[in-house]
What does this fold into?
Amino acid sequence: LAKTTQPISMDSYEGQEVNITCSHNNIATNDYITWYQQFPSQGPRFIIQGYKTKVTNEVASLFIPADRKSSTLSLPRVSLSDTAVYYCLVGTLRSNDYKLSFGAGTTVTVRA
Amino acid sequence: DAGITQSPRHKVTETGTPVTLRCHQTENHRYMYWYRQDPGHGLRLIHYSYGVKDTDKGEVSDGYSVSRSKTEDFLLTLESATSSQTSVYFCAISEATGPEQYFGPGTRLTVT
It folds into this structure.
């Protein structure tokens, strides 16, 4: 499993865009990049997944440069309810052998 | 939300006693996982199952056993609980191997 590095914490204000960058220098050719969100006292929730370029859904956007050694999760116009821990994961889809490896994550605090 | 329940949600037990945590799903997903979450360690995989009676070890399996006799139930047993097993335990499910897993609400276990 490729090692990931992301900031420990980030502060923001309501209505701003939050960008969290994750470094994964040893990403393998078959690896995908996945982001999870975890609220206090809840289990993690899958947000978005991508392989290259840009992926967008109703929650976030994921930007992946051509070399794939990093990725950026973008949360548009955050609200107080976006305060959570965000995890970047990198792994390979392989039959009977997909193990998620969560690091410490990035604690995002949104203030009014 | 995916239909995953965990029981009990909270438990306090004494060192040396056996403990069984239950994960129940109503999604008929093939894959089920048990994680533990501790401060400073993120989530770590304990065991996972890729079908009825098919299980495998994860990153931190020592001191834990699992069983899956039905698609919907995945049991985690601590044969003789120790204080180092005080943690929050999350069950997760997925329809296929891959990064998109759905997590339960968690069980907070305290071993005194």
Chain B touches chain A at residues 33, 35, 40-45, 48, 50, 58-59, 90, 92, 94, 97-106 (CB under 8 Å). Chain B has one domain: 4-94.
